[in-house]
Amino acid sequence: MGQNDGPERGSDLNGVTRAGEILFAFTRERPEMGLTRLASEVGLSKATVHRVAQTLVSLGLLEQSEQTRAYRLGVRIMRLADVVASSLDIRKEARSALRHLREQTGETVYLMLLRDNAAACAERIEGWHPMRDLSTPPGTVVPLHVGASGSAILGVLDADALDAAVSGLDPEREAAVRRRVAFAREHGYAVARGDVSQGVGAIAVALRDESGAPVGAVSLGGLLERVEAAETQLAASVSATAAAVTSAMGWS
d(Cα 216, Cα 208) in Å, to the nearest integer? Predict the structure, then answer.
């Protein structure tokens, strides 16, 4: 190692830190900033910000408007974001939280994903109660008007989606679905009683991506009497699990 390696390394690290601070200053609320605003946001001099920003522009990590000279994130940032997004497998990211929910409640837990106006079972972890729900194996596709997960998802979607989901149902069935969805919208979780399997109760909470759009739901199912007796506690546990999955996916 040469005599100057230490100071140079320190300078390099400072440069990387400053570059990171500049990139992290951009948000949805601040997608584009001029030099003065950017320097104010990161607490550095305009000369320093200009020097680092120009390096980031040369790397494609920032772009600079020819008209306003304001900076915005560059296309190479989007490519990096795509790499991260493609590497995130929701089943993998959710598995730890789902296992914790199963250990906490003893009930069978599910990860349901929104697929073409239906909920598809992507993951199921069986409960440890002797009488447990095994009604929806992985790969099962359930219409949104059936079960707690569909109701939780519909509770996040708009009225048109709900109308489409109940189209063709008899009036009594349609009314029951609408009541369940209304409950989900009010309380933040959905409850189904014997909807998929007789004698089985289920509780579900919708999963939302960074835009707030539903991508699926976390749910648990068990003996109806057991689920009804502990509804409040189970709903809180399912909600916490949904929040953990959302955080693991970087959506919160």
Answer: 7
d(CA 109, CA 106): 9
Query: In this predicted model, what pLDDT tens digit does every residue of 36-75 receive, in sequence order?
Result: 999 999 999 999 999 999 999 999 999 999 999 999 998 8
AA letter at 211:
S
* 227 and 192 share one domain: yes
Can you give the residue range of the structural domain that contains 229? 88-248
Query: What is the token pair recorded at 155?
Result: 């509770």
* The residue to which tokens 């970087």 are assigned: 250
Instruction: Report percent pLDDT > 90 for the chain.
Output: 71
139-149: average pLDDT: 92
Residues 97 and 63 reside in one and the same domain: no
Between CA 246 and CA 252, with CA 250 as vertex, the angle to 5 degrees is 60
Place of tokens 């989900």: 184
Number of structural domains in the chain: 2
